[in-house]
């Protein structure tokens, strides 16, 4: 899931940079948790913390999920391509 995706984005970091794209991951985890995750997996992508879930809710990715018959709230993994002017190019 998140780890595999983060590793893939890190592996492609030079290509994203050459295309003028910045890669930023976001989750409700704390900045300290993100720092440990980055160090553990040697990631080059930036990870933003949204503990209040303000941005996650604004982007519509904080959703009710279900696993093993149990419902809970969580992040629906989604990739957004955002233009330099701040508009969403594609989801």
Written overview of the protein:
By secondary structure, the protein is α+β, with helices and mostly antiparallel strands. The chain has one domain: Glutaredoxin (3-Layer(aba) Sandwich). The protein has helices spanning 2-11, 13-18, 31-41, 54-58, and strands at residues 24-27, 46-49, 62-67, 70-75, 81-82, 88-90. A two-stranded parallel ribbon has the order 1-2. The protein is globular. The mean pLDDT is 93.
Mean pLDDT over all positions: 93
Strand content: 25-35%
| N-to-C order of helices and strands | HHEHEHEEEE
Helix content: 25-40%
**Rg over C-alpha atoms, rounded to the nearest angstrom:** 14 Å
Structural class: alpha+beta
Number of folding domains? 1
- Characterize the overall form: globular
Q: Output the CATH topology.
A: Glutaredoxin
CATH superfamily: Glutaredoxin
Unreliable segments of 5+ consecutive residues: none
Biggest beta-sheet profile = 2 strands, parallel
């Amino acid at each position: 899931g998140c780890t595999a995706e983060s590793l893939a984005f890190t592996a492609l970091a030079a290509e994203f940079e050459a295309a003028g794209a910045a890669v930023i991951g976001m989750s409700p985890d704390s900045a300290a948790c993100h720092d440990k995750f980055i160090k553990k997996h040697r990631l080059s992508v930036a990870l933003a913390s949204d503990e209040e879930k303000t941005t996650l809710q604004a982007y519509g990715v904080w959703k009710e999920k279900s696993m093993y018959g149990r419902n809970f709230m969580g992040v629906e993994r989604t990739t957004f391509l955002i233009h330099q002017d701040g508009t969403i190019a594609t989801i």
